[in-house]
Each structure stands twice: as C-alpha cells, then as structure tokens.
C-alpha cells in the first residue's frame, strides 16, 4: 500500500480568521456552511476541541454518493499545520488562500486523489460562499 500526498490550494473571499475558525473549532458546524458537500461532522469527544486523540466522523458526498469516514488525529503539530488559511493582500475579490494537504492511502476503496482535490475545492468554495452570506 502506498501513500499519496494530496495538496490543494483555493482562494477564498471571506476572512482567513473566520474560515480557519470554522474549519477547526467549529468543525461540527461544517454541514451548516457546506450542505452540498458535507452532511455531518462530529468531533469526538463532544467538546469540539481539536487535539491528539480527537476523532472526526465525516458524512459527505463524493461523486454523488454518501460516504462515511472516521479519522483520528494522531499528532497535532502547530508549527507544521497542514491546514493553513493565510490572509492575502486583496487580489481582486480574494481575501485569503486556503492550503490543505494530507496523506491519502491508495487502495481499491479510496478514490483517485485527483477527484479528492476537486471535492476539497468544491467544499472550500461552498464554505466560503456561505460564510460570506452570514456576514451580510
């Protein structure tokens, strides 16, 4: 079994602070902000704090099908965080750049990483759109 490192970069219009906050401490609310791509996210234990041992239970839509995934955080490295949301100098309509990377195990049950890139892009764009609506 080989591991594939997936990297995705997406420009977003909402503030970096708001997007990062929802992706981390507000993870259980992701289905509210991205209902087309995420049906439900639970962070266990139920206090939503992200730390070593936290388990994310994701129900999401992938290629039109409902998928459930469970992921346990085995390390938290604040120096080398893999999700970064960086404020940018206003470049047209974009206020931040989202960089998300992760290792994906390639086997017969895992979709091609290229498709996962598309899902991450769609998810971030949907999240961004709905966070902007909330600010109105």
UniProtKB/TrEMBL annotation:
Pfam families: Bet_v_1. Residues 1-134 form the Bet v I/Major latex protein domain. Gene3D superfamilies: 3.30.530.20. SUPFAM superfamilies: Bet v1-like. GO terms for biological process: defense response. Coiled coil: none annotated. InterPro entries: Bet_v_I/MLP, MLP-like_ligand-binding, START-like_dom_sf. This is Bet v I/Major latex protein domain-containing protein. It comes from Papaver atlanticum.
């Amino acid at each position: 079994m080989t591991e594939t490192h997936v990297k995705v970069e997406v420009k977003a219009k909402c503030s970096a602070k708001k997007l990062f906050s929802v992706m981390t401490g507000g993870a259980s609310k992701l289905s509210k902000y991205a209902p087309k791509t995420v049906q439900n996210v639970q962070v266990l234990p139920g206090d939503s704090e992200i730390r070593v041992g936290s388990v994310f239970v994701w129900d999401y839509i992938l290629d039109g099908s409902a998928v459930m995934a469970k992921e346990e955080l085995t390390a938290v490295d604040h120096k080398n965080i893999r999700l970064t949301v960086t404020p940018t100098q206003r470049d047209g309509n974009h206020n931040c750049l989202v960089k998300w990377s992760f290792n994906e195990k390639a086997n017969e049950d895992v979709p091609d990483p290229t498709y996962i890139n598309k899902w991450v892009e769609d998810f971030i764009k949907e999240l961004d759109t709905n966070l902007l609506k909330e600010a109105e």
